[in-house]
Amino acid sequence: MVEDPKRKLLMVLALLLLPSSAQTGNTDRLSEHHCMDFQRANFLRGRKLKVQFLLFTSSSPICGELISADDGIKNCSFNSSLETKIIIHGFRALGTKPSWIEGLVQAILHTRQVNVIAVDWVYGSTGAYPSAVENVTQLALAISQFISKLLALGVSGTSIHIIGVSLGAHVGGLVGHFHGGRLGRITALDPAGPKYTRASPEERLDPGDALFVEAIHTDADSYNFLICDHMRAVHLYISALSHPCPIVGFPCASHQDFLNGHCLDCAKPFLSSCPRIGLLEQAGVNMSRLPQEVKVFFMTSPSAPFCVYHSLVEFQLQKKRNRVTSIEISFSSNSTKDTAKITIPKDQETGKRLLAHRVPLCQINSVTLKYIPKNLFWSKDEPFIVGKFCVAPLPLNSSRTMSCLPWSLTLPSKTDISYELPTACA
Ligand SMILES: *[C@@H]1O[C@H](CO)[C@@H](O)[C@H](O)[C@H]1NC(C)=O
Ligand SMILES: *[C@@H]1O[C@H](CO)[C@@H](O)[C@H](O)[C@H]1NC(C)=O
Ligand SMILES: *[C@@H]1O[C@H](CO)[C@@H](O)[C@H](O)[C@H]1NC(C)=O
Ligand SMILES: *[C@@H]1O[C@H](CO)[C@@H](O)[C@H](O)[C@H]1NC(C)=O
Ligand SMILES: *[C@@H]1O[C@H](CO)[C@@H](O)[C@H](O)[C@H]1NC(C)=O
Ligand SMILES: CC(=O)N[C@H]1CO[C@H](CO)[C@@H](O)[C@@H]1O
To answer: Is the pTM here over 0.70, yes or no?
Structure first.
């Protein structure tokens, strides 16, 4: 594989997902006859790889244009001076068109004028998962040949951006690999796990597959295809393209460290420019030479637009206790209430945690604290605790300080105590 060390990054994003109601599907259906839609396969007859390339443009955002041969590319509305986004879906158990395709195509076309090409491989992607995997190399070759035709028309490799979903993310990785890692960008939306967690870099998506590679994981723990957190990455991405509120990640070694407030800014390694989900160049990371691979984390809200504000909340006990202390913290605004739990370890003074809230900190009217005593079989916990509460919005670096409630708080056990939280909007 040709290595270009200059601009490479594999961003691995993980999310804390709160329980949510089911996703609503896309309702628009292609109805006009001259528009090409995805094929329909089912697992009894979908044993062939019939790849179709459907072009969508701002002048024709709903109606797909089938591009077949070389002449087809020249004689269609493909504009070679614009960027090209190539969308690759994954395993389709029932051989149906992915319900999110239209939403993703339209979200992209709303942000900018580009060529959007949806790769329809429902025939090869159906049936049993292992047989879909067997078709991946051939599919990647077909897409690579298609891209080579685009390059021959004068399209620049850096203007090509592959967006691969699940198994489609690894197809994107292979395509990028076939092009020597010189295509512009690959976005992997919850790259598939089965058969890939132990695959070699040549077989799966890796940081060398494009000049910029980003992966958004929403299902880091389990790879059951029938649960909603897997497809959440797609809905999150569509939402990030359609809503102005930023979904910003923070570099951190682990999800636990992130939740426990150990990673509060993007100074290292991103020179204080936090990466953001969406179409900004290099995910908005403002540095000339990106590190090879960085994991970043963020929290989400249970429903679209998913973006949250992160704040560090901290409670400092007046005196250490010989058992664990738990305090529930809630932020209330006119319309929201968001909660987190601070745990202060035994024999320590301070506990901290990240709290994800749906409105900016300056719109939070009050903070509610509730001390939850740990009553053990042989000894009752203290009836109240005394300490100090502080909060600061992320990113929080050494030059910013936390705001604290200006007195020692007495928290009786199992009782909600609310305080005004006076933080002005900038
Ligand atoms: C190009 O498109 C025009 C109009 O859609 C059509 O009449 C013509 O046959 C096409 N040419 C080729 C080579 O496909
Ligand atoms: C292609 O896109 C460029 C840049 O937006 C535009 O100036 C040009 O008119 C487009 N060409 C066609 C044939 O639409
Ligand atoms: C990126 O950083 C450079 C210097 O580090 C600065 O001059 C420039 O304004 C920044 N650009 C953005 C978009 O933040
Ligand atoms: C919250 O409600 C109060 C009282 O109705 C109102 O004055 C204030 O502007 C509201 N704040 C926000 C952020 O909507
Ligand atoms: C600290 O954070 C602020 C706001 O995010 C930023 O403007 C500033 O450059 C940061 N300072 C350092 C030393 O990183
Ligand atoms: C074109 C191609 O290789 N299609 C294969 C896709 O996978 C199924 C199941 O393994 C095969 O039957 C097809 O031949």
So the answer is: yes
